[in-house]
Amino acid sequence: MHELSIVMGIVDIAEAEAAKAEVDSFDAIELEIGKLSGVMLDALDFAWPVGVKNSVLQKAKLKIREVEAVVRCQECGHEFGVESLYEVCPRCGGFFQDLIQGKELKIKSLEYKH
User: Fold this and answer.
1) Is 2 helix (H, G, I), strand (E, B) or coil?
2) Is the pLDDT of residue 49 over 90?
3) Which helix (H) or strand (E) holds 101?
4) Number of domains in the chain
5) How confident is residue 85, by pLDDT bands cut at 50, 70 and 90?
6) % of the chain at pLDDT higher than 90
7) For residues 28 and 61, is the Cβ–Cβ distance under 8 A?
8) pLDDT at residue 111 above 80?
9) What per-residue string of b and e applies to 60-88 under the rule 16 or more CB within 10 Å gives b?
10) Which of 37, 51, 56, 84 has the fewest CB neighbours in a 10 Å radius?
């Protein structure tokens, strides 16, 4: 399960940001995770309590915004949503696309009270 290592990386970033902001803990964290990022949300939820234990995120409310995958056809330029990278363009039937969004794994925000 690589989700635990992802949580540990998020904790490292949050610890560094807490030091910069001179805060002891965060009240909430918002993540953006793309549908094609390879992150299993159920596994991330399972790993979260273990990964954040005794950290600045231990009491933080976890908010996740799942980002839809969107590609642009290299042949006709049509943009469309996909569930995988192996779908053909619905407009021209082209097989080659450029991924526009959907592989994100970002910390969108960290919230704390003054």
Assistant:
1) coil
2) yes
3) strand 97-101
4) 1
5) confident
6) 95
7) yes
8) yes
9) bebebeebebbbebeeeeeebebeeeeee
10) 84
3-state SS record for 45-100: HHHHHHHHCCCCCCCCEEEEEEECEEEEECCCCCEEEECCCCCCCCCCCCCCEEEE
Structure tokens at 29: 């964290």
**Cα-based angle 51, 53, 113 (whole degrees, multiple of 5):** 110
CA distance 109 to 19: 16
**Assigned token pair, 108:** 């969108």
Q: What is the CATH number of the domain that holds 37?
A: 3.30.2320.50
Question: In the predicted model, is pLDDT for residue 43 greater than 70?
Answer: yes
Residue 62: give the domain boundaries: 3-68+102-111
Is residue 18 within a helix (H) or strand (E), and if so which, with residue range? helix 3-21
Kindly state the average pLDDT of the residues 32-36: 97
Instruction: Name the pairing type of β-strands 61-67 and 28-34.
Output: parallel
Q: In this structure, is residue 8 part of a structural domain?
A: yes
